[in-house]
Design brief:
The complex is a heterodimer. By secondary structure, chain A is α/β, with parallel strands linked by helices. Chain A is built from 10 helices and 10 strands. In chain A, strands 4-3-2-5-6-1-7-8-9-10 form a 10-stranded mixed β-sheet. In chain A, strand 9 and strand 10 (252-255) form a beta hairpin. In chain A, helix 6 (136-149) runs parallel beside helix 8. Chain B is 30% helix and 19% strand. In chain B, strands 4-3-2-5-6-1-7-8-9-10 form a 10-stranded mixed β-sheet. In chain B, helix 4 (130-143) packs parallel to helix 6. Chain B is globular, with a radius of gyration of 20 Å.
Chain lengths: 277, 328
């Protein structure tokens, strides 16, 4: 019954796969957390791209950035990400007119591939239709529709934090998150859910329901950006528990899984928080 | 000692508990994610089946197929553990479905659990609430006589099964039902990185807390008995390991070393703190006040909590001014 290393889902970042003893366990939801600019979106794209390379179908749910911007950004890295499918749920300009119901919303959004995304931006033609509400509930409905039609093996949501902030119908956020993750598991898709760094005094539901959390750290050490990655949680598998140095270049994210983070930055950190000896 | 104590399945822990748990009471196993709560709970149940007892695992956050898969890496035999899948279904937002209230979930052996996740029924997703769960458990207890029950986790119960404002009263009622059933019960509680105690810890007869932190030596694990009514117990932090056999607890570390570990704190916490309000995951939970024998102090009010988390944990042996520095 043990999970075989061959059954693991590669993340597209070799070093992180090493830290995860081979990769992610399929059909489970995972969280990628970090501050802005820590590389969360880049990591998610690498994860999806890895799937596409293997001939799998991969879906990006774009909330934070409109798809054409994501495309431009990754193009700058010189990647060909044309085959990643994208569900654009980036909020459109508000019409402040009559709202449509959740069910209708689900029917409005459609998936396109990153390649097809029009360069000009879709100019909120939803203005005519009145802008739909974005919420966890409507997202689950949209995904249900899409995932029923097409079989995906990888999915990334960028980001859950935005959905939580943007949704107007607050309702039962906790149960909705539980339901969304359950839905993803039952569908059999391996998913990455991007969130901001969790507040350590709070118990965020997505953090404790997810089956693993990869945390990307970015901070200034000696007026240089210092990056590293930690595996905060990984259910059902051995994993690396130490922070490992990470860098972002034109090749994307690279992690050196066999290197310790430099003593200097560790010391810097410890001096900062006084847990030192 | 009133009755013979219940062995936990972890010899080191039994030692700390002066022989084991007092039967027919409810205990809390708390800790941050990845500290080994589920593993410890399943060892407790496997110990029961080894002794020919009937035991039940109530799955609330992870679906049983995943728990079984995860446990496959241990040498633990959980095949004879009865499992009750109480994980919530996917919510149906399409239209208000006619809810079939009589729909019941059945209890089965872990040995028979499917490798696939249970699929939400299209027609009648079950709307699980704390009261339906309470009724189902009572019903099940009437049918079969259990001696050990694990609720994994109580935190999920709190987050996903209560939709009213009476959070605390329904949780207390649930704990009350558990103790009326006359079984020895472990409920797991997930703590945030900076721990604080909550209602369940006060209601339970004991609390076993699992810790993890990072220092120069790598990832460290430890266990403390925060509370144990009606029995003497070990007040020190004991080092713990998770091996192929599950949780293994060793003899206590000499005093000097222990303090060292505490000061070294958690690199994890240190890492996160550069970008947000933070502190050490183990800071409060480590036995900084290990002399305290009685029940923990009364639960602080919301305001006190807020003040505490923003002013740098007054309970720390060495209050720091790190918080000021962090905000720069």
């Amino acid at each position: 019954m043990t999970v075989d290393a061959n059954d693991r889902v590669g993340t597209g970042v070799e070093g992180i796969d090493k830290m995860l003893s081979g990769g992610l366990i399929p059909a489970r939801p995972y969280v990628v957390s970090g501050t802005s600019g820590s590389g969360k979106t880049t990591f998610a794209i690498q994860f999806l791209q890895q799937g596409v390379k293997k001939g799998e179908r991969a879906l990006l749910v774009a909330v934070d950035e409109p798809p054409q911007e994501i495309r431009e950004n990754v193009r700058a890295l010189g990647w060909d990400v044309g085959k990643i499918r994208i569900l654009d749920v980036h909020p459109t300009a508000k019409a402040y007119s009559k709202r449509v119901s959740l069910v209708e919303v689900a029917a409005q959004k459609s998936v396109s591939s990153l390649m097809d995304t029009s360069g000009a931006g879709s100019k909120s033609d939803a203005l005519k239709k009145a802008s739909p509400d974005l919420s966890l509930q409507s997202l689950q409905l949209m995904l249900k529709q899409e995932l029923q039609e097409t079989k995906y093996s990888r999915l990334a949501i960028d980001s859950l934090t935005s959905i939580k902030k943007l949704q107007e119908t607050m309702g039962d956020t906790e149960t909705s998150i539980m339901s969304l993750m359950r839905f993803l598991s039952e569908t059999g898709v391996t998913s990455l859910i991007i969130t901001d760094l969790p507040d350590p005094t709070q118990l965020e539901p997505e953090i404790f329901i997810c089956r693993g959390e990869i945390r990307l750290h970015k901070r200034m050490v000696a007026s240089k950006i210092d990056r590293c990655v930690t595996i905060e949680k990984f259910r059902g598998s051995a994993h690396d528990t130490m922070p490992r140095p990470m860098s972002i270049s034109e090749k994307g994210i690279t992690v050196e899984a066999n290197k310790k983070i430099p003593k200097a930055s560790l010391r810097e950190l410890q001096a900062f928080t006084q847990y030192v000896r | 000692m009133i009755k013979e104590k219940v062995k936990t399945g972890v010899p080191g822990l039994d030692e700390m508990l002066d022989g084991g748990l007092i039967p027919a009471r409810t205990y809390v196993v708390s800790g941050a994610s990845g500290t080994g709560k589920t593993t410890l709970a399943l060892q407790f149940l496997a110990e029961g089946t080894k002794r020919g007892e009937r035991v039940m695992y109530v799955a609330l956050d992870e679906p049983p197929n995943e728990v079984k898969e995860n446990m496959g890496s241990y040498s633990l035999d959980i095949g004879r553990v009865q499992v009750f899948d109480a994980t919530p279904d996917i919510m149906n937002y399409d239209k208000t479905p006619v809810r079939d209230v009589s729909t019941e979930r059945k209890v089965e052996y872990f040995g028979d659990t499917s490798t696939e996740i249970r699929k939400t029924s299209e027609r009648s997703p079950v709307d699980m609430t704390i009261s339906t769960l309470q009724e189902m458990l009572k019903q099940e207890m009437k049918v079969r006589r259990y001696t050990r029950v694990v609720i994994d986790s109580f935190t999920s119960l709190k987050y996903f099964y209560i939709r009213t404002s009476e959070e605390n009263t329904s949780l207390i009622s649930f704990l009350r039902v558990l103790s009326d059933l006359g079984v020895t019960c472990l409920v797991t509680v997930q703590l945030p990185e900076i721990a604080r105690s909550d209602v369940e810890a006060h209601m339970a007869r004991g609390e076993i807390r699992l810790h993890k932190w990072i220092d120069g030596r790598g990832l460290m694990r430890g266990v403390t008995i925060e509370k144990y009514r009606g029995s003497s117990h070990d007040h020190r932090l004991r080092p713990m390991k998770i091996t192929d056999e599950g949780v293994v607890i060793k003899s206590p570390v000499p005093e000097s070393e222990e303090v060292g570990a505490q000061e070294a704190g958690s690199v994890n916490a240190a890492l996160t703190s550069s970008s947000g309000p933070s502190g050490s995951r183990d800071q409060e939970s480590l036995p900084s006040n290990k002399e305290e024998h009685g029940p923990p102090p009364l639960e602080p009010t919301q305001d006190e909590r807020a003040a505490k988390s923003s002013s740098g944990q007054s309970e720390l042996p060495k209050p720091t001014d790190a918080r000021g520095a962090e905000k720069q």
